[in-house]
Amino acid sequence: MTMKKIYIGMSADLIHPGHLNIINEGRKILEKSGGGELIVGLLTDKAIASYKRLPYMSWEQRRIVVENVKGVTSVVPQETLDYVPNLLKIKPDYVLHGDDWKTGIQAKTRQRIVDIMSQWGGKVIDIPYTEGISSTQLNNALKEIGTTPEIRCHRLRRLLDSKDIVTICESHNGLSGLIVENTSIEENGKKIEFDGIWISSLTQSAAQGKPDIGYLDTTSRMGTLNEILEVTTKPIIYDGDNGGPQEHFVFTVKTLERLGVSAIIIEDKVGLKKNSLFGTEVFQQQDNPEDFAEKIKAGKQAQITQDFMIIARIESLILEQGMDDAIARAKIYLDAGADGIMIHSRKKTFDEIKEFARLYNQFSNRKPLVVVPSSYNQVTESELIENNINVVIYANHLLRAAYPAMVNAAKSILENHRCKEASDEYCMNIKDIITLIPGAK
Ligand code: SPV
Ligand code: MG
After folding, report:
1. Which domain does 125 fall in, by range?
2. How would residue 51 be classed by pLDDT, with cut points 50, 70 and 90?
3. Are residues 165 and 117 part of one domain?
4. Separate counts of helices (H) and strands (E) for the chain
5. Best probe residue, ligand 1, of 242, 374, 397, 398 (max atoms within 8 Å of C-beta)
6. Which residues of 103-123 are buried (b: 16+ CB within 10 A; e: fewer)?
7. I want to staple 196 with a disulfide (CB 3.0 to 4.6 A). Which of 174, 235, 264, 356 is the partner?
8. pLDDT for 224 beyond 90
9. Does ligand 1 come within 6 angstroms of the Cβ of 387?
C-alpha cells in the first residue's frame, strides 16, 4: 500500500466543527488506506486579505492552532488564494473541501483544481458542508464582541505587510464610524471594504461647527475618538495636526497608544493652524525640519509598544517649497525615526505626488508612503499601487456627502411648510432610522 497525501486549504482563523469535520474525514481516508500525510495549506494573511478582511489571528498563531489539531501531520503556507502552486509542489492524492464550493464563485476554483489534479491521478473530495456554523457567522459575532487596544493597534502593521494598498476612510462620529466599519461591496467574488478609519481634524471640527484651526482641544478630540472606538474594530489613524508643542505631543502619543490607535500623522507646520487645502492663499508656516525631527524623536521615545506608528506629513508641496525640499525633509524625518511619510498636494493632477513617490521609492530606508487624494481625486487605487504608495486616505467624503443631503432636507421643509416632501425625497424610512443601530429595540 502506498502512503497517501491529502491537502486541505484553509484560513482557520476561528476553528469550528466544519473545519474539524473535514480534517476528520481526511484522517479516516488515511486510516483506511494504511496511513499517510494530512497537509494543511494555511492561507497567509496576504492570501486572505486579497479577498476578505484580514484574519483576527496572525499566520503564526493560526499555525500553532492547526498544527495541534488531531490528524494534521504538517502545515505549509498557502501564499495565494489559488491552490495550484502548492498542489504542483506537493502533488497530493486528494484535496478535501466543504461541498459548498461546488456552486457559486468558488465552482471555478474547484474545477481548476480537479483539472490540475488529474495530471497525476489525484482527486477532489467534496465533504458535506457542516450546517449551522460558519466563519462568517463567527466573524460577525466577534465583531459584536469588539476588539482590544493591542489587537487593533497592531492591525495597521499587519495590513501594511499583507495588502498592496491600505484603504482608510474618514469618520467624525459613532455613526460614520459604523459606516466605515460595516460597509462592504462584492466585486468578482471578493469582499471589498475599508481597512481602517481616519480621524480627520477637518471633519471632526466641521461636525462640531468649528473651523479646522486646531481649536478643538485634545480632550474634545478624544471624546469623538472614544465614540468611534466603542463601535468599531478597524485600525485607526489619527490626524494630529502638528502634534502641538513637543511637551504635549509625548502625552498625546501615550494616550493614543493606550486607546489602541495605530498611528498618528503630524504635519511639519508651526503657528496658527490652517487647513492645508488653502495652500498659499492663507498664511501658513512650515516648521524647521530639524525641530520637527526632534518632535518625531521625542514621540518615538515616549511610545511603549513596538506597534504604534508616528507618520510625518510633509507640507512642502502645499506651501510651494519645491520637490527637493520635500525629499530632503522625508530623509530627515525617516532618519529621526518616523514610521512612514505622508505627502500632501493640492494640485488637480497626480503628477507631483507621482514624482515624489518615484524619488522616495529609491530611499534605502523607505517606510510606508501615505497619500490623501482630495484634490487629485481622479487617481485610482491601481495607479497608487503602481507607484508603490502604501496607504490611501479618503479624508472627508462621508461628511461632505452628508452635508448637502441635510441642507436639501432643511430647504424642502421650509419650501413646503411641511415635512412630507423632505421625508419622501431625502430621508430614510422612519422605521429604518429607529432600528438603524443593532440593539435599538
Ligand atoms: C484632514 O482630513 O483634516 C486633513 C487632510 O488633515 S486635509 O484636510 O487635506 O489637510
Ligand atoms: Mg487635518
Report:
1. 4-135
2. confident
3. no
4. 18, 17
5. 374
6. eeeeeebbeebeebbeeeebe
7. 235
8. yes
9. no
pTM value is 0.89
Which residue has the least CA distance to atom 7 on ligand 1? Answer: 276
Is there a single domain that holds both residue 151 and residue 212? yes
Distance 216 CA to ligand 2 centre (A): 12
Classify residue 389 by its DSSP letter.
-
Helical segments of 232-373, H only:
246-259, 289-302, 323-335, 351-360
- Cell 460597509, residue? 183
Alpha carbons within 13 A on the beta-carbon side of 266? 30
pLDDT digits (tens, 9 = 90+) for 277-331: 898 898 999 999 999 999 999 999 999 999 999 999 999 999 999 999 999 999 9
pLDDT tens digit sequence for 5-39:
999 999 998 888 999 999 999 999 999 988 999 99
Burial of 396 (0-12, 13-18, 19+ CB in 10 A): buried
Q: Are residues 85 and 158 in the same domain?
A: no
Q: How many domains does the chain have?
A: 3
The CA 267 to ligand 2 mean position distance, Å, reads 9
